[in-house]
């Protein structure tokens, strides 16, 4: 028990794509679902999550969908990836940065894309 109690609901992010357990837990508890995925897998996993939500009586639109942009993607590929997944319902994007090996052109392109939306 938290003392003092929180002044708002504490957001819960659950990452993963396990269809029987993980996505069921996302449907029941999470405010955000995170997954590293390609477009076809995203469509499939989103449908599985939506079915779990329907089984529980929860609106799947109440769960933010966070996806990881491939770390090694060049700027154009990263923006294309983000645009395709946004069109399918992804609402948040992460880009891993590996020490000093990150691509600033990709980061800048994604930020310009985000700001233009």
Describe this structure in words.
By secondary structure, the protein is of the alpha/beta class. It is about 45% helix and about 15% strand. It is built from four helices and four strands, in the order βαβαβαβα. It has helices at about 20-30, 40-55, 75-90, 105-115; strands at about 15, 30-35, 65-70, 90-95. It has a four-stranded parallel beta sheet with strand order 1-2-3-4, with helices on one face. Strand 1, helix 1 and strand 2 (about 30-35) form a beta-alpha-beta unit. Helix 1 (about 20-30) crosses helix 2 (about 40-55) and helix 3 packs parallel to helix 4 (about 105-115). The longest helix is centred in the middle third of the chain and has 18 residues, at about 40-55.
Unreliable stretches (pLDDT < 50, length at least 5) are none
Total number of beta strands:
4
Separation of the first and last Cα atoms: 40 Å
Give the count of helical stretches. Answer: 4
- Please, what is the average pLDDT? 92
Strand content: 5-15%
Largest sheet geometry: 4 strands, parallel
Radius of gyration, whole Å:
16 Å
Order of SSEs: EHEHEHEH
Which structural category do the helix and sheet elements fall into? alpha/beta
State the shape: globular
- Strand line-up across the major sheet: 1-2-3-4
Helical fraction? 40-55%
The multimeric state of the shown protein is: single chain
């Amino acid at each position: 028990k938290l003392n003092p109690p929180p002044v708002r609901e504490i957001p819960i992010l659950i990452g993963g794509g396990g269809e029987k357990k993980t996505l069921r837990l996302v449907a029941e508890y999470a405010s955000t679902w995170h997954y590293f995925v390609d477009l076809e897998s995203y469509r499939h996993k989103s449908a599985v999550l939506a079915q779990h939500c329907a089984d529980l009586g929860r609106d799947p639109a109440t769960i933010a969908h966070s996806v990881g942009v491939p770390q090694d993607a060049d700027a154009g590929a990263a923006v294309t990836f983000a645009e395709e997944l946004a069109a399918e319902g992804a609402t948040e994007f992460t880009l891993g940065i590996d020490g000093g090996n990150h691509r600033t052109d990709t980061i800048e392109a994604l930020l310009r894309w985000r700001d233009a939306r």
